[in-house]
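@channel sequence for tomorrow's demo:
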Amino acid sequence: MQDLTIWDFVLLPIYLFALNLIAKYIRSRYAYDAKLIFYFKWGFRFKMFLAIVFTLLTNFVMRGDSVDLYYGEGKNFANIISNNTEKIDLLFMQGGEEPNSLASPGEKGFLMMESNYSVVKISILLCFLGFKKYMIVNLLCAFIAFLGSWCLFLFFRKQRPEHEYAFAIACMAVPTTIFWSSGISKDAICMASIGFLTLSLYKLMVEKQKPMLNLLIAIVCVFLIYHIKIYILYSYLPFCLYYLTISNIKNTNNRFFRVVLRLLFPIFFSGCIFYFYFYGDDFFSIFSSDEIFNTVSVTQENFTAQARTEESSYFTLGEFDGTLTGFLRMTPAAIGTTFFRPFVWEARNIVMLLSALESLLILWFTLRNFFSITGIRNFFRKIFTDSLVIYCLAFSLLFAAFVGVSSFNFGSLVRYKIPAIPFYLIAMILISGKTFTRKNKEEENAV
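structure tokens (generated this afternoon):
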């Protein structure tokens, strides 16, 4: 089945023009800084290009959840609501029996899970905005994901403006990260939510700007991530809040008070994490370690069953038994797999080969940092003395452990790891201590 029609290509230039006007309006807010305009302009163009590529590939070459489940059911439910406006309540209910009963025959069972149905509900809204055309739905979703990446870039630029060029690449120009967040999918929505959440929390807690607006944005982002990929919250929020609290401490005027807080807060924070992760069932049962590891274990079983039909991309790190001990035992291999695999010889198609080459570059950058740029001693010293590095590295490593343990198919792995990639690269950039700068105008034009 092909979901692209001639109308997708007729509407494409119209929507590109409209999104470009919106992008120009947003870009005009940064007229005071030519560099920001440059990053925004090229980040937007790259994202729109990859959204078109993503649409063509997923429609004609490698069909999957984006086209068959999320867009397909979004279009299906949009038609149901169009034909019977009383069904508008489908946008406000959770996944379960009723949405599943209305699903297309081939997608029965998937809408029992709220994580899938949440994306379908967003797809329904985008279908109404995009005349139910797959190309346009992907274009709109990609634009939202780009704005999330832009927010993430702005946040890190505020922390270390001397690294803005490298941050722009890490947030908006890593090919597989941008590609897999360029269509209607869990990955695109979660990437956008992380970016908006990070900047809104920073403005709320540190800059104290527009508290009501930023609180609302943060709540919406947490709501989306909670319902789509809850383990991102387990991995991300503690370390993000840790860094933002440290930033507030640094702004305290009393030097003695600032030193005491910096000494006591990490101990207090670590104790809270330990307590709520492993003993907090009575207070907030959903955050118990049993729930986390059970979710990972079930996910692993699902991937294993799916991977049997795709033997060429299947891999295994061993069976996960759903316990903390089992998780810790598999963590080193899981982290290495997430960041550095697939290896070049494990690639079975051109998309996988590009991901393998990207993983090879990340491995090279890591080893170069460890042995050459900083030296082993400075490498670890920077990790433990820079709160921004702690935040980025702790989140990316914990998230990589969850993904590596639960993913047993390279096709899934390269998609699910993308939230960790910008943070890991930024941590490596900060550890290297090297300031990357833009090339001159002639070199930019040549590129």
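heads up for whoever presents: The mean pLDDT is 81.
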